[in-house]
Structures are given as C-alpha cells and as structure tokens.
Amino acid sequence: MFNFFDFVALFFAAYCLVVALMNARYFRRHSEYQVEVVHENNELVSVLIPARNESESISHCIESLTKQTYRNLEIVVLDDRSDDDTFDIVEQYTHSDSRIKIISGDDLREGWIGKHWACHQLSKTGQGAYLLFIDADTVLKPTAIDDAMVLLKVAGNDLVSFLPYRSRSCLLEYVVFPFIDWIIISWLPLKIAQRIKLSFFSASFGQFMLFKKEVYFSSGGHRAIKDIPTDDIELGRRVKKNDFSWGLYDGTQLLKTESYSTNLDLVSGISRSIFPALNHSLLTLLAFSILLIVLGFYPWTVVVWSLLDGESVFSVKGSIAILSLLMFVGSWLVVCKSLSHELWTVFLYPFSFLLMILIALHSMIMYSAGLTAWKGRTVQVKKIRW
C-alpha cells in the first residue's frame, strides 16, 4: 500500500529534479553579459584575504590575483598571527606589485571567531567601492573578478558569491563535495530565491564574496556575525534581510579552492560548519538525519524487498519507488554534469547521505564538548538547544 514514506520520497525526488533542471539553466547567468560594460566605470575593488598559517597556498592565490583582467584592484592580506612564514611570502610580492599590501592582525578579541575578526579588520582597511573577500587557498581564473563585477553592475546584485571548484586529494571528498552542491542546486531554486525576501532562501560561499561596500556595512558586516561559524551563509542572509540583492552563481570554471589533505581533515573541516548550519538545534539535526535516511534508502529498500519477497517491482508501491530512484539519480546527474563532478559518484548518493549524517553527529558532539577549533583556536558558539 502507498504510505507516507512513499509520498515523501516521491515528492522530494520530483522537487529536487525540477529545481536542479531550473538551476542548471540559470546558474551561469554571468556568461550572458558583456565584460566591456564593467570597464566603462572601472572602480576600485578591495580584495581582502585573511591568512593564518597559509604559507603553502598564499603564493598561488596572490599570483592569480595579479593576472586578473580587472586591473583596478588593491590586494590586502592580513597576517593573522601566523606561526609560519606567511607574512614574509606576501611581503615579497609587495615589492613587485604596488597593489599588494600586507598588514599584521591585532590580538583576537573576546567573543569573536578568529577568521571573522580578521575579516572585520580587513573591511576597515579596504579603500575600494567594492569589497571582495576570498580565502587564502583560493585560485582565481583571470576573468573571475570581471565576471563578478558584471553581475553586480548589469544583473543588479549587491552581493555576488561564486560556488567554487574544489580540488580532490582524498577519497571522502568524492562523496562529500557532490552532496554539498546537490543540497544547494537541488533544494534552492535560485531564480525564485533572488526575488523573495525570506533570508533563509540563500547560500553563499566564503571562497568568493563580492559586496558593494555600503551594502556590507549596512548589513552589519562580520561584526554582526562575530560568533557564528557559518559566516558566508549568515552574511548572505543578512544581505537579503536588509532588502539588498543577493546572487549565487556557478564559479567552477572561475575559481578553485584547495582540497583537504586527509579524510580526517575533511571530516573536521565540514564538521565545523554543519551543526551551526542546522542552527545548533538537536531537533533540526534529528529531522535532517531522518529525511536523508528516507530519501537515500527507503526507495532502494522497497525495490530490494519486493525482489526478495517474490513480488513484482512494478506494483504501485514498487513503481513509485523506481520512479523516485530515477528522479533522484536524475537530479544528481544534473548537478554532477553541471559542476564538474565525476559521473560515477551519482550512484553513491545513499552513501553521501549516510556520511553527512555521521559528520553532522560528529559536529554536534564536538560543539557540545567545546572541542571545535579552527587554525588552532577554539571556536566558541551559542548554547546547544533542542
């Protein structure tokens, strides 16, 4: 008999496929516009980079910035009390390119997360009409800033964020990264999200966030989210909450971010964000876990049980399960094809769901025990709540 779980699986499978197809058409909207429009009024863009112990990656980031086709830049790196030679590496670039500056960060203030405090200091140094925050391990293609400025000026955005291409160096990245993109592309109808005021309907990526300067400060900037680990998500939500225009676009052909070194580093890194993204709520975590279990495993269970029990898989219940599976595979195929993921990962989506549930539980435990850290600093967060 058709039951509640059949309905949930069928409904979400259909929803995810429809949204993924809509977003696949919309996601690369920046390619519709001509870059020449930007250069008619070539205003200064302040590129702001917080760096703490980034000696292995900062050179690639800076070199990619010096090759940008958008030339009117100031590139400011804040050395956040690094223990390595990050400062010395960046200082060498200041001698060959006058646009590059290196400053030393102040001691971390109480109540602030380290990266947020670094970005807050950077925001006060930026002289440009636009503020671009990027991570020190992000490498930009030459046209990346040009394309983002087009979206700000022609498409009417006040904040532009690009979803990056993430390089892979460990096994779990092939399972986790497609899931992250699938959640965004299959759950969030981007064109509709841009038009409605609900701040919850947004997603941004800290690897690339370009603001109009007045919008950044009017929305509260990093000061307003100083103790919230998911800074990129919260900044995007605050932009929408203050009636400004937010836009998320495909940046997989425009920027690349470095991968985690090991599977353990991956779990630790993703764990730092996932429980805060669930609002530190145990009930939300439980609902999230149950939903993923139903979506990832229930249709497969129905099909396998029918085969083992000698029933036809093309009964009403079996047909609904097969249809749900086909639509889930379809939505994953759209995401993987659009965002340069390996196509064989499409059929691993149940394992992606299971792994993300385990990482979410790990995240909850680490935050509850006060053991979550970033760059050697403990991350203090709001109280865990039901």
Structural account:
- The chain is built from 13 helices and ten strands.
- It has 386 residues and is of the alpha/beta class.
- The protein folds into two domains: 121 residues, no CATH class; 215 residues, Spore Coat Polysaccharide Biosynthesis Protein SpsA, Chain A, CATH 3.90.550.10.
- The strands form two sheets. An eight-stranded mixed β-sheet has the order 3-2-1-4-7-6-8-5, with helices on both faces. Strands 9-10 form a two-stranded antiparallel sheet.
- Helix 1 packs parallel to helix 12 and helix 6 crosses helix 13.
- The mean pLDDT is 90.
Q: What keywords describe this structure?
A:
13 helices; 10 strands; globular; alpha/beta; eight-stranded mixed β-sheet; two-stranded antiparallel ribbon
Q: How much helicity do the residues have?
A: 40-55%
Total count of domains: 2
The N- and C-terminal alpha carbons lie at a distance of: 35 Å
Question: Unreliable segments (pLDDT under 50, ≥5 consecutive)?
Answer: none
What's the CATH H-level superfamily name of the largest domain?
Answer: Spore Coat Polysaccharide Biosynthesis Protein SpsA, Chain A
| Mean pLDDT across residues | 90
Strand residues, percent: 5-15%
The biggest beta sheet is recorded as: 8 strands, mixed
CATH class term of the largest domain: Alpha Beta
Q: What is the CATH-assigned architecture of the largest domain?
A: Alpha-Beta Complex
Number of strands: 10
Side by side, the strands of the main sheet go 3-2-1-4-7-6-8-5
Tally of alpha and pi helices? 13
